Amino acid sequence: MKKILFIVFLLLLVGCEKEDIITTSLNPGFDIITVGSNWEYTGCVLSVNDDQTYNMAIEENNIINSQLGEYEVIYQKEFRETIYTCTRIVKVIDDIAPLVTLNAGIDTLVVGEEWIDTSVTAIDNFDSELTITVIGEVDTATIGRYEVVYTVTDDLMNKTIVTRIVNIIE
């Protein structure tokens, strides 16, 4: 009887071979980049039983950092005749407001003189056409301090606001 129990025990031990637990995980990194910026490779790892790790190679990287959109970076690793895949989504966005500069002009005038709005110059990191909105009026017939507000907006609604102060004196 002891021999039979021993044989059953041995068969259970042989039949209970531990199966590997294999996982893939993305390393921490920035998955959102500003248009024109370079994406930093941070990788993906294949883990076996949480004690063996292997870096996965980039199989495909279609990021175009000069175009807005979502792009896939696909990592792969062959392990024990099986190909494991890991995918990272990288989003290219425009989150930078236009750069706006007040154009030089004469902004302190004597009552009755003509004021000429010299406006602003604006450039953007991505959009070539910008919208400029001007709010405010200058009454050159009345002494006072006047504000002219310029709002410059790109296609993605990133905006910059600058204010010109015009003084009408005696």
Account of the 3D structure:
The chain has 170 residues and is mainly beta. The protein folds into two domains: 75 residues, Immunoglobulins (Immunoglobulin-like, Sandwich); 71 residues, Immunoglobulins (Immunoglobulin-like). Helix content is 8%, strand content 48%. It has one helix and 13 strands; from the N terminus they run αβββββββββββββ. The longest helix is centred in the first third of the chain and has 14 residues. The chain is rod-shaped. The protein starts with a helix and ends with a strand.
Q: Would you kindly provide a brief summary of this structure?
A:
The chain has 170 residues and is mainly beta. It is 8% helix and 48% strand.
The overall pLDDT, averaged over residues, is 91
Name the CATH superfamily assignment of the largest domain: Immunoglobulins
Helices and strands, in order, run as: HEEEEEEEEEEEEE
Percentage beta strand: over 45%
What is the number of helical segments per DSSP (H or I, 4+ residues)? 1
- Radius of gyration, CA atoms, in whole angstroms: 33 Å
Shape: rod-shaped
Question: Which CATH top level class of the largest domain fits?
Answer: Mainly Beta
Give the termini separation: 120 Å
As laid out across the biggest beta sheet, the strand order is 2-7-6-5
Task: Summarize the biggest pleated sheet.
Answer: 4 strands, mixed
CATH topology of the largest domain: Immunoglobulin-like
CATH level-two architecture of the largest domain:
Sandwich
Q: Could you say how many structural domains there are in total?
A: 2
Fraction of residues in helix: under 10%
In total, how many beta strands? 13
Low-confidence region ranges: none
Structural class by sheet pairing and helices: mainly beta
